[in-house]
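Weekly structure sync, notes
Attendees: PL (lead), two postdocs, one rotation student
Agenda item 3: pending single-chain targets
PL asked that the sequence for the first pending target be pasted directly into the notes so everyone works from the same version. It is reproduced below exactly as submitted, 138 residues in total.
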Amino acid sequence: MPRALAYRRAADDEPFSALNITPLIDVMLVLLIMLIVTIPSLTHKVPVDLPQGDETAPPGQPHQLDITADGTLLWDGARISDAQLPALLKAGASADAPLLLKTDEAARYERFDAILAQVKRAGVSKLAFVGHERMKID
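Predicted structure, written out during the meeting:
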């Protein structure tokens, strides 16, 4: 009996020549899944028009357009109608003045979207959103 035990111990001490590739396959599958998940986000592009031009030109006086909770428009604090907005936007765009857009948090999104479409059609190139300071992340 002791001889059989010694023989078995000698056979167990020999090096094992086969490589266990299961962990390697697991890692490769995880990397493949990560690649499949991240590639669509890398190919999605949002077109952004960045300003090009003379930086020495002084900007015009900024105008503020407010959208209140009930959808009323205020241009520099004065109430305006929807019919007056395109003319004011064109005048501001031609003067190259920045437009500050402030929307009440209770305003309807459809109203905001319609106003933003008018701003784009008017050719306003300098637009800033104000009034969201409390949402700033440090």
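Discussion points:
- Residues 62 and 98 are 5 Å apart (CA to CA).
- The longest strand covers residues 63-67.
Action: rotation student to compare against the earlier draft before next sync.
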